[in-house]
């Protein structure tokens, strides 16, 4: 745990050896820039495209319907409004005949509109997810990059810090941090900001505990790249450290970073919903998808829709992000080639050392 | 090697110190332990607050309290000192005691689930790798993504509703309508047809056979009310045992190795005879006896293989040993089934066997079989939930590892030598694919102790996760620290084991001291 594992080192060596081999053997991509190749591969991945479309629809739906950042939305109810029960609160939406109705997802016991609540919950969950992804990505890239590039005592300090955080199980650490984020002591500026922006605080706090895995990956990537010839060439021609990092190494490491930030985000939405479910994340009166499920699980026998719709949205968001991450991985990893097992006669070395399902810990 | 291990251990100890300091401070910072008392209107409010302050030592600043705690915890390192002191929780119970109880609960909950998830995940991964880009592969891939995206608390509620309440209602009148029987048969038939692969004719035959057999069995179960009064009996054990013997032999040595096949079949025959012999013994069963019987069964199998010999004695021994173990498991399942009606009609169970919460029916009376059945019916739902959410990563990891291996030069060499597909897959590919899997399995076992926080909450199991969350909600650092220290130590130990195992399994990896 504390030292780079042997696995990591052998992978680095393999990567070095294979890099030369694969660069020569890419015929279908000749004449295209790196960005074009990635885009071409990504848009050739059906699962990723479907995931992208679903995620876009959910985003638009969630943020325009009930409004966000003080802007009004097009949906007639608010997530706090209580209206008289229609048909005992059962969902009015139907597929055949296609109809939307008064309360498409139904109402809860006291008559709040579930569609508005689910949309608000999705907004909050997505906000937390994006914040976690952005902060974890930034911190992870900086820590991992510095450690990998400068080595020496910088690496020792940063990586020991990473080790300290990484042995605390994610969910346990997140629970502690979530509890801190929910602390509302009277009087301070923090409390007044937090009382109106609870999820933002939660997202930021969780982001600062989720970066460790990314930092290790980025460091591994930097360790390999800094030994490559083009870095030596840049250094000999007098480039500064900043120029080497930003112009030569980072563009090559960005694939790993983007893919894993995506996968961190898919784990983040499960983390947030799980924390809210445990009562350590988003608190009432605010709403998140996990909180909706937690509040309504007892009502499953009488009002199952209260339980189905929020859960469905969690799954849809997480699933589409996982597919996007899968597509990005295929697009960015030049070593990974699609091949048919039967016709693998030609000397392509298929290397899929990285599992498609990410290494991010899953909360149980 | 020794220097490496010592260095790792020293670093681990330092990391543990840093991380525990961090966790202690964060927990102490996370809230106000007196919050509920401040809000209460009890007349002796001040006295209660003083009592809790002195119990949790709140007058001392948190960093100082950490070192006090560390002083107590350091005594745990003294072997046989019995001076271990991890503090007390908010109710005044010593943490060491609470941890012992929680650890047992957690391990019973997660061990079975993890073992099953690993076994199923690895098999699925291998099958999908061998049938790459088939309908099966796409189906399993999609399922893996879906399961990976499932929030476990959501799955758990569904399982409670349909797995427990639904199944218990079904048991009241266990009749399967013919349509449902046909449907289940058809689904399993299609799955079987997809799994076998090969020519269309072969798929049709296999799928059709599975469909017919499953449907007939279900109709038979329905007519005889089998689910109320389940049992296997010696005849079914003999038939299933023969099937197992053939299947295991195919996997371990191939049917061409007649001696292996014969020894497996002999073991099955011994098993059926032993079925009658052990029944009186099993009536007096204890956990230890079952364990001794299991070890004995495997030894008998291995001995049969040894004496049958053949050109590859090791293969015969392996095939017969595994067969013996599985046939023994069948006998055990049969005995559980015999005990099922008495459990079902138990006054505490009252005909609703699958439980939704807890780790056991309170105050249940009965012999070994009833009690262990009770534990199992409480474990069914959490186990299924845990398997579902952790299956995906094993499947995907095995699949990619296996695909990579299948493309290696030595696999081509093995095929070129004229080896059968079975021995290429089982002997050359599978074993090498297991090396990276061994590491993630070690990591996961290390993380087992941390428990399944959410699963424990949903199913009201008072394990490690519950202890942690409960301590956290009361801003009580001691239980939180107790759980954290256990989790961190096991995790780091297993990480070290994983690294050592990796270098032992893969000679290309050398440990640098």
From TrEMBL, chain A:
Family: Belongs to the binding-protein-dependent transport system permease family.
Membrane topology per record: Multi-pass membrane protein
Source organism superkingdom: Bacteria
GO terms (BP aspect): transmembrane transport
InterPro entries, sorted: BP-dependent_transpt_permease (IPR050366), MetI-like (IPR000515), MetI-like_sf (IPR035906), OppC_N (IPR025966)
Region of interest called Disordered, as start-end residue ranges on this chain: 343-364
Organism for this UniProt entry: Arthrobacter terricola
PANTHER family: D,D-DIPEPTIDE TRANSPORT SYSTEM PERMEASE PROTEIN DDPC-RELATED, OLIGOPEPTIDE TRANSPORT SYSTEM PERMEASE PROTEIN APPC
GO cellular-component term (any): plasma membrane
Keywords: Cell membrane, Membrane, Transmembrane, Transmembrane helix, Transport
Primary location class: membrane
Protein name in the entry: ABC transporter permease
UniProtKB/TrEMBL annotation, chain B:
Membrane topology designation: Multi-pass membrane protein
Primary localization class, coarse: membrane
Record-annotated membrane-spanning stretches: 102-126, 138-159, 179-197, 204-226, 232-252, 264-282, 288-307, 319-337, 379-397, 433-459, 479-502
GO cellular-component term (any): plasma membrane
Any one of the GO BP annotations: transmembrane transport
Keyword tags: Cell membrane, Membrane, Transmembrane, Transmembrane helix, Transport
Subcellular location: Cell membrane
Gene3D superfamilies documented for this protein: MetI-like
Start and end residues of each ABC transmembrane type-1 domain: 103-502
Protein family (similarity comment): Belongs to the binding-protein-dependent transport system permease family.
Classification via PANTHER family: ABC TRANSPORTER PERMEASE PROTEIN, DIPEPTIDE TRANSPORT SYSTEM PERMEASE PROTEIN DPPB-RELATED
Name of the featured protein: ABC transporter permease subunit
